[in-house]
Write a structure and sequence with these properties.
Layout: H1 3-17, E1 22-29, E2 33-40, E3 56-57, H2 62-75, E4 97-101, E5 107-110, H3 118-122, H4 135-144, H5 174-186, H6 190-199, H7 213-216, E6 223-225, E7 231-233, E8 252-253, H8 255-266, E9 270-271, E10 274-275, H9 279-284, E11 316-318, E12 323-325, E13 337-342, E14 346-351, E15 356-361, E16 364-365, H10 372-385
Parallel strand pairs: 6-16
Antiparallel strand pairs: 1-2, 1-15, 3-8, 4-5, 6-7, 9-10, 11-12, 12-13, 13-14, 14-15
Length: about 375
């Protein structure tokens, strides 16, 4: 069986079993796309087929694009990785470290031991978190009337830190702040900056914070897996008139567009003659930038996610844009791979050793879905088995 048949069998069977309502999957090497397929429906029961150009909420897959934008600004002398981030976004100088809650349930904080830097934001080691994996942040939000970040309100970014900057890894609103730094340094909105400097040059014409009419015609619906294990359409959309464009998770896009971004990384920072970052910058995306800190299992604190960790037991760190696996993964991916995901069960990886990249796009909650995540891993394994 060739790659086309092997991957197609894995994904079509997944749809038939009800693992996902619909899925798009693509694989590329440095030269171009070597597999693409779409299976199932954009919305369960709609009769509208999922197609390779279907648009989905790519959620935290946005982070790597925003991180590359920040790295561009560093390379252009507009931002510094290790200077206090408050020099660019003064609000970051006001953030305290959470110490607990007083008798009235109000959060108490202390000043951090050191200033937050862009490098810490990009590696998720600044101390920020997400309420969906942290109950203390839920208490802070309730006490202070702070909305969740997907509402794209500036107040959502006024959370305290869980620890002093640089002392641990914690997944959170870091890249939203990095996006704010890109805006401050460039004088543009994040969406315009990305369009001018990354999305446009790479031909990612179906990727944006604002869903165009053309994109909406190809939009796949989010779904929610209920307690009975059944999937149902779940109306959810990122605000289309946001107070700020969410660099940590606001983009909608296609698997094909995202694969172009991944191929740019595989090709040393350029694609089709369009240079996005320097070769040195691209190389920095594949190495650990957070010292001895390590990525750990995220414990679900709301029903829209399950506990989440890729390849438990494999040590993982963070580069300036991606999670890095320090040992080989059970799918066949060697050590030194780059990856991450989006909350609606979209996943991707880059394998610089073999010159491969893959994208898997579906639209399901909860994150790390008990059926969709294994299907993604089966897809990745099928790619390596077919080589």
């Amino acid at each position: 069986m060739g790659m086309q048949d092997k991957i197609g069998a894995v994904l079509s069977q997944g749809v038939q079993r009800g693992d996902v309502p619909g899925v798009v999957a693509m694989v590329a090497n440095r030269e171009g796309v070597i597999y693409e397929g779409a299976f199932g429906e954009r919305a369960l029961g709609s009769g509208t087929a999922m197609t390779t150009d279907s648009v989905g909420w790519i959620a935290s897959m946005t982070k790597a694009i925003t991180s590359v934008a920040a790295l561009q600004c560093v390379e252009r002398g507009l931002l510094k990785l290790d200077e206090p981030a408050k020099n660019v976004c003064p609000q970051l100088g006001q953030v305290g470290v959470l110490t607990g809650f007083d008798a009235n349930g109000q959060p108490t904080t202390r000043p951090p031991k050191r200033d937050i830097t862009l490098r810490q934001l990009l590696t998720h080691s600044a101390g920020f978190s997400y309420e969906i994996w942290n109950t203390d942040m839920q208490k802070v939000q309730a006490a202070l009337g702070i909305p969740g970040v997907t509402e794209c309100k500036n107040k959502a970014l006024t959370l305290p830190l869980l620890f002093d900057p640089g002392e641990a890894w914690e997944y959170g609103i870091n890249i939203d702040w990095a996006g704010k730094m890109v805006e401050a340094a460039s004088g543009q909105t994040l969406g315009q900056y990305l369009k001018d400097n990354i999305l446009g040059p790479l031909g990612m014409n179906s990727t944006a914070f604002r869903i165009s009419d053309d994109m909406r015609q190809r939009l796949a619906s989010p779904h929610l897996r209920g307690p009975d294990g059944q999937l149902a359409v779940f109306p959810f959309e990122i605000p289309q008139e946001p107070e700020f464009e969410m660099g940590g998770g606001g983009l909608y896009g296609t698997a094909g567009d995202y694969l172009r971004f991944l191929r740019m990384v595989l090709n040393g920072g350029q694609l089709g003659g369009e240079r996005i970052i320097t070769p040195e910058g691209a190389a920095s995306l594949g190495v650990n930038h957070m010292g001895d800190c390590r990525v750990y299992n995220l414990k679900a604190a709301i029903p829209l996610t399950n506990d989440a960790e890729f390849f438990p037991g494999v040590p993982k760190s963070w580069s300036l844009a991606f999670q890095i696996n320090h040992e080989a993964a059970p799918t066949g991916r060697p050590a030194g791979g780059m990856m991450w995901a989006g909350l609606a069960n979209s996943y991707y990886w880059i394998d610089p050793t073999n010159g491969l990249a893959g994208v898997y796009l579906t639209q399901i909650f909860p994150f790390a879905d008990h059926k969709s995540l294994p299907l993604y891993l089966d897809f990745e394994k099928a790619v390596y088995d077919a080589r």
